[in-house]
Amino acid sequence: MNAYVTGLTARDSSFVTTANTDQPAVSRVEAYIRAQDFARPTLVIDTEAVARQFAALAQGLGRARIHYAVKANPAPEILRKLHSLGSNFDAASRVELQMCLDAGAAPEQLSFGNTIKRASDIAWAHEQGIDLFAVDAEEEIEKIAANAPGARVYLRIIVDATEAEWPLTRKFGSGRDKALALIAMAKDYGLNPVGLSFHVGSQTRRAAMWAPILDQVAAVWHAAKAEGHELTLLNIGGGFPAFYGREIDAPALYAAEVMRLVQERFGDVPEIMAEPGRGLVAEAGMIAAEVLLVSKKSDDDLHRWVYLDIGRFSGLAETEGEAIRYQFATARDHETTGACILAGPSCDSADVLYEKQPVQLPLGLRAGDKVMIRACGAYTSTYASVGFNGFPPLDVVAI
Amino acid sequence: MNAYVTGLTARDSSFVTTANTDQPAVSRVEAYIRAQDFARPTLVIDTEAVARQFAALAQGLGRARIHYAVKANPAPEILRKLHSLGSNFDAASRVELQMCLDAGAAPEQLSFGNTIKRASDIAWAHEQGIDLFAVDAEEEIEKIAANAPGARVYLRIIVDATEAEWPLTRKFGSGRDKALALIAMAKDYGLNPVGLSFHVGSQTRRAAMWAPILDQVAAVWHAAKAEGHELTLLNIGGGFPAFYGREIDAPALYAAEVMRLVQERFGDVPEIMAEPGRGLVAEAGMIAAEVLLVSKKSDDDLHRWVYLDIGRFSGLAETEGEAIRYQFATARDHETTGACILAGPSCDSADVLYEKQPVQLPLGLRAGDKVMIRACGAYTSTYASVGFNGFPPLDVVAI
């Protein structure tokens, strides 16, 4: 058995079913990284794995339409692959909308989902024929009415704290107490308020965690309908999880259960859209990194420090607060392991990945050793800084 | 009196002496930003202000050599200006070393100050004639001995928690208990261990805060000398502050007082180097940003939310944990102000700048209004992500 496999066998069974049912134990991405040398940290993405995950989610979501959350990873190869499979897209900015159009998407397949939009970008999107916008405040309604007259809008509402691993703040959405007034205002401004959206919280590991959130949204939904607003679109947002070490539901089952919970509360909604990002691409990508230094600060220190050539400012931003816990594999995984503090290469003391909860890595690890970081397909490449400390951004290779 | 001046007059007297003694109340950068329209968030840097600050620090530092910490802002215009003034440089990576060489610096003016270096980058630096390296661990000594035989190295040591505003962790440096053994090891490996370095902590506002740190370093210094190690170089690192709203010592006085504290403890050290980064360039830069949205989540909310077109992932990374508190100016500063939560434009709920301690901004602020962010010359442009959410990196203009 290959040394690289030990990390895989430690995974729980749900992961094995999520991405690799009919695959050999070492994925295509892992085999690729093992066979290559990399001059700098590189994200390798398997577009076939993205396609398999899309199929699994689409199966579970049934009649709900998938709008891939482009911000998770806008690599053109991913956008083209998803477009070829019939995916729609959710974009956060004009640049992302343009990338979707460049990948072949039609304007009616796009949603401008950021609630914070520049007026000139709304006007540009409207000119392109994009006709679906997120909104959560009076001023945003005014901007859309002025720059995309008559457009379809959905109102994003705030839902209360969830069990997600990267929880949302109150940054996005309107309070539920204001929802009906904003829908009425959108109508007064000549817009077409077609429905509601919300976000259950990124990396919501279990479908069952959606239930209390859906209850909150359903209350607003039914109140709006009772007041005569004809809502036809429910946008259930993202939150679909990836495997980072803690058990998650398999994607088709997860999506089907979410849809069952939706059906139970909302009945036959004409249009449902879902915006998986992380849940669609994270597991399809792996980062090839390298150890730069292993050291002990004092002879009686409990833990080593292991420094990689990638850190919080060059792709691993989601380790902030140690929120997302990546899994690591090395060529020494058959050796004895020990706890270590893991840090990035920059001269910034905040560039520490895991310290409160140290990571188990082989004791023999040395400068120059290759380290593979699993499930890095989402929220890595575009988070990388342009060149903090002179380190180049994460390279991306699609296979 | 101009509306923009109100922010300035609220500053304490030490700031006024730091950058603008012989300047009009509105700085060159501020005048430039007021006169222009910007299509995207833009950092405007006044290289003349950098030069004035260099002169002030150099005056205070006396015989200590300034090595500008390039990571603070590697804009070629800044590097060329500082080179023309006789500055030396401290670089964190091969790319930064190359930028210094490109700006005209000689190899002997450069220090490779990152304690975490790729072996091939050490070899490359050695080939260029760069002969001064930071080190804090056995494996790094091995790498330098193998790739830059005979090089001068200084040992970075850990100092205990300081009163700095962006405090350092134990990420960099060796424990003081290991210092003498590492110096001896460097000698055994044929290197030339010339001295010690440390970092008092970024944004250490008062020179007096250096005293207890210098005591710790001096104890190691004198112990090493007592053991027969002939140390000739003391690198006092950075920590020189910029004005972000809390009073700081004026730069020349600050630097002179630090040097007095050093002299008191170390005597006549042959070579002293200082590595100001933030303290040299922060106040010379200002970001031109724009309001994208102002909203209230609920009618009974205490605070508004104000969303800018720049956030934590597009240049304002140092607002993490609300550590660095930037000062803002708008064209409405003569109007009544109120507290608001300030956030960035991305679809990431972590992209909130100030929430625990809200910011006072004019109540009339609206989407489209220009916002100027002061003292942004350091740790902004290179921290910006390559394109998270499709937002372009911070633009940089040097005047």
Automatic annotation (TrEMBL), chains A, B:
<dbReference type="GO" id="GO:0004586">
    <property type="term" value="F:ornithine decarboxylase activity"/>
</dbReference>
<comment type="similarity">
    <text>Belongs to the Orn/Lys/Arg decarboxylase class-II family.</text>
</comment>
<dbReference type="InterPro" id="IPR022653">
    <property type="entry name" value="De-COase2_pyr-phos_BS"/>
</dbReference>
<dbReference type="InterPro" id="IPR002433">
    <property type="entry name" value="Orn_de-COase"/>
</dbReference>
<keyword id="KW-0663">Pyridoxal phosphate</keyword>
<feature type="active site" description="Proton donor">
    <location>
        <position position="347"/>
    </location>
</feature>
<feature type="domain" description="Orn/DAP/Arg decarboxylase 2 N-terminal">
    <location>
        <begin position="49"/>
        <end position="282"/>
    </location>
</feature>
<dbReference type="InterPro" id="IPR000183">
    <property type="entry name" value="Orn/DAP/Arg_de-COase"/>
</dbReference>
<dbReference type="GO" id="GO:0033387">
    <property type="term" value="P:putrescine biosynthetic process from arginine, via ornithine"/>
</dbReference>
<dbReference type="InterPro" id="IPR029066">
    <property type="entry name" value="PLP-binding_barrel"/>
</dbReference>
<dbReference type="GO" id="GO:0005737">
    <property type="term" value="C:cytoplasm"/>
</dbReference>
<keyword id="KW-0456">Lyase</keyword>
<dbReference type="InterPro" id="IPR022644">
    <property type="entry name" value="De-COase2_N"/>
</dbReference>
<dbReference type="InterPro" id="IPR009006">
    <property type="entry name" value="Ala_racemase/Decarboxylase_C"/>
</dbReference>
<protein>
    <recommendedName>
        <fullName>ornithine decarboxylase</fullName>
        <ecNumber>4.1.1.17</ecNumber>
    </recommendedName>
</protein>
<comment type="pathway">
    <text>Amine and polyamine biosynthesis; putrescine biosynthesis via L-ornithine pathway; putrescine from L-ornithine: step 1/1.</text>
</comment>
<feature type="modified residue" description="N6-(pyridoxal phosphate)lysine">
    <location>
        <position position="71"/>
    </location>
</feature>
<dbReference type="Pfam" id="PF02784">
    <property type="entry name" value="Orn_Arg_deC_N"/>
</dbReference>
